[in-house]
């Protein structure tokens, strides 16, 4: 699957340029009825066979379910997996969002459960799912630095942190990678995050290459009430309709070249730099198969210009998160 990327850390470890995003295997997309654990585990196993080493999970994705799936798939192959886990997002029994907790004692508690569920004694990349604005980031990173010393975390990461927060965190302990949404449809990272990660020598973990499935062209705009996309401005009403028109253009562009829109969208993210790990978010082997073909796509400068024109600022209507969550993501 091409060369490996080196996460830029002291004791840095090479990882594959594509990572597998596990979130939809446990939560946020579809419903309990549409999820299939056996297929999810088989997808992780297939990813490993195809050379993917980077696995992106969250302790709050299905409240431990996501880590349990990963544990089953990497059993006896732990040394071939680079495990990334997010923590600190609090949720209730019905999946409701209850706030953030990244206090030192909470972190040490969260990781103890995660290690148990994952069946491992270390996590390669550990990161708060969001930065808690009510707590000095130095406290959170200080506690994580203790965990690095203890050997239970290999690298500290951040998710949806601002440039200022990245600098503050990095001053306490070197930050290995910053995870942020980045796709043809969501390009805020280019202005706000990539300049700082590149200056400080960190990797960027790009999530949502398909804008949560939107760029695949396969969404109908109808979602189960437990599907997070039912509450995202981009996926409903006139915004969704207008976005479908842009996706249609992407589809035409892809088809002319013998690709699917998903392959083009994933390849575009991967094309943005060797410091980027591009997450492929799928719970199904046939989609992984399709999406991995993105690794063979090369764009000419004319094609890149066409994609830029298609996805010029404003081409995708609607924010990427509900308004009440925009304050805790890059904006
Ligand atoms: N840090 C953060 O705040 C944050 C937020 C969101 C996600 N993430 C991480 O990033 C990972 C990737 O994000 P994402 O899952 O939103 O990725 P994505 O690639 O933008 O979207 C994934 C969605 O697209 C569907 N899909 C994938 N390939 C497809 C194809 N070829 N044709 C049609 N539909 C396709 C998937 O469904 P199927 O499963 O049915 O294929 C899933 O519903 C997540 O798994 C999670 O680990 C991080």
What tags apply to this protein structure?
eight-stranded parallel β-barrel; 11 helices; alpha/beta; 12 strands
Map the helices and strands.
Blueprint: E1 5-6, E2 14-15, E3 18-21, H1 37-49, E4 54-58, H2 65-74, E5 82-87, E6 89-91, E7 97-100, H3 104-118, E8 123-128, H4 137-150, E9 153-159, H5 163-172, E10 175-181, H6 188-192, H7 194-200, E11 203-207, H8 237-256, H9 261-270, E12 276-281, H10 285-292, H11 301-310
Parallel strand pairs: 3-4, 3-12, 4-5, 5-8, 8-9, 9-10, 10-11, 11-12
Antiparallel strand pairs: 1-2, 6-7
Helix pairs in contact: 1-2, 3-4, 4-5, 8-9
This protein binds NADP nicotinamide-adenine-dinucleotide phosphate.
Care to describe what's here?
The strands form three sheets. An eight-stranded parallel beta barrel has the order 3-4-5-8-9-10-11-12, surrounded by seven helices. It starts with a strand and ends in a 21-residue tail after the last helix. It has helices at 37-49, 65-74, 104-118, 137-150, 163-172, 188-192, 194-200, 237-256, 261-270, 285-292, 301-310; strands at 5-6, 14-15, 18-21, 54-58, 82-87, 89-91, 97-100, 123-128, 153-159, 175-181, 203-207, 276-281. The protein has eleven helices and twelve strands. With 331 residues, the chain is α/β, with parallel strands linked by helices. The mean pLDDT is 95. A hairpin with a 5-residue loop joins strand 6 (89-91) and strand 7. It binds NADP nicotinamide-adenine-dinucleotide phosphate. NADP nicotinamide-adenine-dinucleotide phosphate (NAP) is lined by residues 21-24, 29, 56, 159-160, 179, 207-213, 216, 218, 262, 279, 281-284, 287, 290-291.
């Amino acid at each position: 699957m091409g060369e490996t990327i080196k996460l830029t850390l002291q004791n840095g470890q090479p990882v594959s340029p594509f990572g597998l995003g596990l979130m939809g295997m446990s939560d946020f997309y579809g419903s309990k009825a549409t999820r299939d654990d056996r297929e999810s585990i088989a997808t992780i196993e297939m990813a490993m066979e195809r050379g993917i080493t980077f696995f992106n999970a969250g302790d709050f994705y299905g409240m431990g379910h996501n880590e349990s799936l990963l544990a089953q798939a990497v059993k006896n192959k732990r040394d071939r997996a680079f495990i990334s886990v997010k923590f600190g997002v609090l949720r209730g029994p019905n999946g409701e969002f209850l706030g953030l907790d990244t206090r030192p004692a909470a972190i040490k508690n969260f990781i103890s459960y995660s290690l148990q569920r994952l069946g491992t004694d270390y996590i390669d990349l550990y990161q708060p799912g969001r930065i808690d604005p009510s707590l000095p980031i130095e406290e959170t990173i200080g506690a994580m630095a203790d965990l690095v010393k203890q050997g239970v975390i290999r690298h500290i990461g951040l998710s949806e942190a601002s440039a200022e927060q990245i600098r503050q965190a990095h001053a306490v302990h070197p930050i290995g990678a910053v995870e942020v949404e980045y796709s043809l449809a969501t390009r805020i990272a280019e202005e706000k995050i990539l300049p700082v990660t590149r200056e400080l020598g960190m990797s960027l973990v790009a999530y949502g290459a398909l804008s949560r499935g939107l760029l695949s062209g396969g969404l109908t705009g109808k979602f189960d009430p437990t599907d997070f996309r039912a509450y995202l401005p981009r996926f409903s009403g006139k915004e969704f309709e207008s976005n479908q028109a842009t996706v249609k253009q992407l589809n035409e562009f892809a088809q002319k070249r013998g690709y699917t829109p998903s392959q083009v969208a994933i390849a575009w993210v991967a094309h943005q730099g060797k410091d980027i790990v591009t997450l492929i978010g799928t719970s199904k082997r046939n989609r992984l198969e399709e999406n991995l073909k993105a690794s063979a796509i090369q764009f000419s400068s004319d094609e890149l210009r066409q994609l830029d024109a298609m996805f010029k600022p404003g081409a995708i209507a609607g924010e990427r998160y509900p308004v009440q969550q925009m304050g805790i993501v890059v904006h």
